[in-house]
Amino acid sequence: MSDVLRLGIAGLGTVGVGVIRIIQNQAERLEMRTGKKIVVTAVSARSKAKDRGVDLSSYAWEDDPVELAKRDDVDLFVELMGGSEGAAKEAIEAAIATGKDVVTANKALLAIHGQAIAEAAEDAGICVRYEAAVAGGIPVIKSLLEGLAGNAISRVMGVMNGTCNYILTRMESAGLPYDVVFEEANQLGYLEADPNLDVGGIDAGHKLAILAAIAFGTQVDFDNVELEGIGSITIDDIHQAADMGYKIKLLGVAQMTGRGLEQRMSPCLVPDTSPLGQLQGGTNMVVLEGDSVGQIVLRGAGAGEGPTASAVMGDVCDLARGVRIATFGQPARTLRKAASARAAVSAPYYLRLQLQDKPGALAKVARALGDNGVSIDRMRQYGQQDLTALVLIVTHKTTQTALDQALEACMETGVVSGTPLALRIESV
Amino acid sequence: MSDVLRLGIAGLGTVGVGVIRIIQNQAERLEMRTGKKIVVTAVSARSKAKDRGVDLSSYAWEDDPVELAKRDDVDLFVELMGGSEGAAKEAIEAAIATGKDVVTANKALLAIHGQAIAEAAEDAGICVRYEAAVAGGIPVIKSLLEGLAGNAISRVMGVMNGTCNYILTRMESAGLPYDVVFEEANQLGYLEADPNLDVGGIDAGHKLAILAAIAFGTQVDFDNVELEGIGSITIDDIHQAADMGYKIKLLGVAQMTGRGLEQRMSPCLVPDTSPLGQLQGGTNMVVLEGDSVGQIVLRGAGAGEGPTASAVMGDVCDLARGVRIATFGQPARTLRKAASARAAVSAPYYLRLQLQDKPGALAKVARALGDNGVSIDRMRQYGQQDLTALVLIVTHKTTQTALDQALEACMETGVVSGTPLALRIESV
Predict the structure, then answer these.
(1) Nearest chain A residue (CA) to B296
(2) pLDDT digits (tens, 9 = 90+) for A80-125
(3) Interface contact flag, A330 B26, Cβ < 8 Å
């Protein structure tokens, strides 16, 4: 084994530059800790000319990340370009084909092609590490994959999109409507180029799918993550939830049920005294539950140069130290295809409906719910606006199926305006 | 390499039994995840006859843990006896001498003999792992040693003794004095045989010393942990702190300062909205701060069969997977002897004094503080009881040295009864 570990880094955005800064500034500490001199030999990015504030002059330049991945003077390929298809995927495949270990921050790629990549890597004796793909600087992959390896994991939950948590907590603290705070977040540069990746829950859904694969020994299955964004949450919903002792969070939940694997990324109500409920702003939080360990809560910055680069370097140091673990914690070909169980676990729900000003409207809705087995825990009706009245309901525990039928029955009464909102109340 | 990893377990208390339960119940999962069949070949404990609720019949029995550690049919020695001297230490030394890796939950041993053990282990090519020694089920050693390996760590903090946190939060919630809650905790079996290990901060101090060694690349140095227990905290202090927006926690803080390594385990005030401030009951919390990652907060059960056994098994799985990392994250002989800096970092303080009913008493105390450079941010004087008046003061930032001098000057005024209490207000 060489005493030098040579990195090729593809992608010199915020994270790539952060990784180079750590390697340059912490060279001595990294060598002390890993026993290897960690060096960058080559880099690749879109624009060679751009000033990124770090000295790249001693690194070879490749315009094509695939060529970078194939270089003989690269031992470890660090993919920080992003995107589930195209260059990132091809470059990782090239690295595996030419015998290089891979460190990536690419959640979309792993959520969609994780199984194929893990199989190819293991067939070639290659390690693929991806701590930075989930929850930024929080060592959640390591905790789940290694620290809790003695546990049967029962549930994984998390607030894993800082932008959505910023929007929801800012709506509450400033009393501003969704559209205004969305635009604020946009001005601040918090949103992806396609904002739906954030507010539609897709980005966080990718992360949840990756965690679920490790937790349950199943093939990563993003297609079966139920996705619901935060766009329909109103300030009324947030205030109402607060009155009842809850916060609204874009919460990911993955759990193995008798009927299969349930994966949801959706706005949920959580108790305001719980760690998840208390999470403010852009911070991330992941909750891991195992049969022996009970509940572990991990909190930290979910994005940004330093935290994400810290996660990348954790993986790089592991590989430098000779840590070699299967991508998802067990051989990829032993990962099961889990049956997908949508909303298998019953829960109480928060419902928001607009009732038309018709005699007996409330009674009709209450009966429609009751006839479908959805019983009401609490109900509050507000004064009329525009000839409709706002009704907020908390149900007792029910299944999503029963609730869907009940809401359909509500619509058939002809007294409901617009589309009802239903948010799960998650026990955390 | 064999496809079987053979464990010898010394110590069959709560944790040892928990480890055996996991190995028996999760055999298939453990083999899937590690690629090794993890089996127990021999065990050792004080009483062979005792019914521990697990089937030990297929394991060899050793009365002497040293003999267990030396057995040829043991690959990995698991030390769960505890105690910094005697059998635990001798058995670990025997394991190292006969070429076995070691997993231990023994914080006292590592805090006091960690450097010698690490050196002996590394000279022999042996790994010593100890996730269970700090904060129970929380993978804090792994996070710090591996996940944050790319960071220069600036500060490590934590509430790492669940019993103390139970006592402090129970005093507040029930409005009960220390002595009553201490006795409650005793009845509930929460206290060590020597309660001073808990309420004197010794147990938590051991844990802090271990974390500091990893964080700062220094030789573990428990002797220089400033220890202060929770015995002098009154319900008045807790209420007064609450009024000002703080909670009182037995908080460990380790940080590298310009003058050396500062390690403190003492009751501190922390903001009640911070994760540390919100921590209730027997739960543990560790805060890790690094130059890249920012602040990471880890929360979970700090004790108990399941959580501690989970941590032990995380280490066992790592070794089964071939993960081999230096005990404190870098070669033991490169760990520096850090200068010890007591209270090098200035902070605001909370002071409690009993003033005698003499004219100008308050003015005398205020002048004694001011003359020694300690300026007052807030002060509150309460009505007389037993001819003394309670005075509570929050100072501006000051050093421990200035404060000690100022308190001495206060005593010299002759108007102070009893011993003043000074608690640091920690910025978290």
Answers:
(1) A300
(2) 999 999 999 999 999 999 999 999 999 999 999 999 999 999 999 9
(3) no
The class (CATH top level) of B4-133 is: alpha beta
Contacts with A, B 7-26, CB within 8 Å: 18, 22, 26
pTM: 0.96
- Domain range summary for chain A, segments of one domain joined by +: 4-133, 140-301, 349-425
Burial pattern B222-247, b for ≥16 Cβ within 10 A else e, equals bebbbbbbbeebebebbebbeebebb
Put the strands of the sheet holding A4-10 in their side by side order.
A60-62, A37-44, A4-10, A76-79, A101-104, A128-129
User: Would you tell me which residues 334-353 of chain B have a C-beta closer than 8 angstroms to some C-beta of chain A?
Assistant: 334
CB B91 within 8 A of CB B70: no
> What distance in Å separates the CA atoms of residue A262 and residue A255, rounded to the nearest whole number?
5
The highest-level CATH class for domain B349-425 is: alpha beta
Please report, for residues A11, A102, B140, the alpha-carbon distance to residue A64 in angstroms, rounded to integers and kept in the order given.
11, 17, 40
Q: Tell me if the domain spanning A140-301 has CATH number 1.10.10.60.
A: no
Start-end of H helices in B47-139: 65-70, 87-97, 107-123
**A337 in catalytic set:** no
Task: Give the minimum alpha-carbon distance from B322 to chain A in angstroms, rounded to a whole number.
Answer: 7
Contact B322 A321 (CB under 8 A): no
Tell me the residues of chain A between 127 and 156 that have a Cβ less than 8 Å away from chain B. Answer: 131, 137-139, 142-143, 146-152
Return the DSSP state at B398.
B
B22 and A143 in contact by Cβ < 8 A?
no
Q: How many CB pairs under 8 A join A and B?
A: 191
A137–B294: do the CB atoms touch at under 8 Å? Answer: yes
Tell me the pLDDT band of A2, cut-offs 50, 70 and 90: low
User: What are the tens digits of pLDDT across the range A324-369?
Assistant: 999 999 999 999 999 998 877 899 999 999 999 888 999 999 999 9
Residue B297 sits at the chain A interface (C-beta within 8 Å): yes
pLDDT band with cut points at 50, 70 and 90 for residue A50: very high
Sheet strands side by side (includes B128-129): B60-62, B37-44, B4-10, B76-79, B101-104, B128-129
Q: What is the mean pLDDT of residues A12-31?
A: 97
Interchain contact A315–B (C-beta under 8 A): no
User: How far is the C-alpha of A206 from the C-alpha of A222, rounded, in Å?
Assistant: 6
What is the pLDDT, as a whole number, of residue B2? Answer: 54
What is the dihedral angle through the alpha carbons of A284, A219, B139, A107, rounded to the nearest 10 degrees?
-30
Q: How far apart are CA B69 and CA B95, in angstroms?
A: 5
Residues A87-98 as b/e (b if ≥16 CB within 10 A, e otherwise) read bbbebbbbbbee
CATH number of B140-302: 3.30.360.10
What is the Rg, in whole angstroms, of the alpha carbon atoms belonging to chain A?
24
Active site residues of B: 207
Q: What ipTM was reported for this prediction?
A: 0.95
Say how far apart CA B172 and CA B165 lie, in whole Å: 11
Angle A39-A45-A50 (CA atoms, 0-180°, nearest 5)?
A: 100
